[in-house]
Write a structure and sequence with these properties.
By secondary structure, the protein is an alpha/beta fold. It has a domain at 75-154: Ribosomal Protein L15, Chain: K, domain 2. It is 22% helix and 11% strand. It is built from 5 helices and 5 strands. The protein has helices at 56-59, 78-87, 98-104, 136-144, 155-159, and strands at 74-77, 115-118, 128-131, 133-134, 148-151. The strands form 2 sheets. A 3-stranded parallel β-sheet has the order 1-2-4. Strands 3-5 form a two-stranded parallel sheet.
Length: 160
Amino acid sequence: MKLNQLSDNDGARKERTRVGRGIGSGKGKTGGRGVKGQKSRSGVAIKGFEGGQMPLYQRLPKRGFNVPNPKKYNEVNIGRIQTALDAGKLDAGKAVNADALVGAGLITRLAKDGVRLLGKGEISASVKIEVAGASKAAIEAVEKAGGSVTVKESKAKAEG
C-alpha cells in the first residue's frame, strides 16, 4: 500500500446536507422549514418566548448579586514560591513582589489588579512577601516559617 492509496472507510465521513439546492435533493424549496410563518423565515429569535405568557425565567425569583467590576488577581500559591526559591529563581534575601514573580516566571504578566497569595503547598524559607492580597492560611504559613506578608494597594488601584 502507498500513501496515495490511503482513504477512509466507507461511511466514515458523512457529507453535509446541502439544504435549499433544488427539489431533487429532497431538501429543496422550503429547505426543511415547513411552510410560511415566523419560524420559516430568517432572523427568528423566540428561544424563551411562551406565546405572550410570562416566560419561566421571569416568573422565578431572582437572587444574588454580580459585582460589575470585580478585581482580577494573578494567583500564586506558597508552594510555588518555595519551589522557585529552591531552584534559585527567587532570592530569599530580597522582598518577593510582583516584579520578582514575573522575573521568576511564576506569573506571566501584570495586566491584572496585582498578585494574590494563596495557601496551597508548604513554605519553609523565611521570606518577605509584598502582594495586593493574601488568604489567611497563606499569611499564617509564611509567618510560621519566619517570614512576613505585606498586603499593599496594587498599581491599578493606586492609579485609578
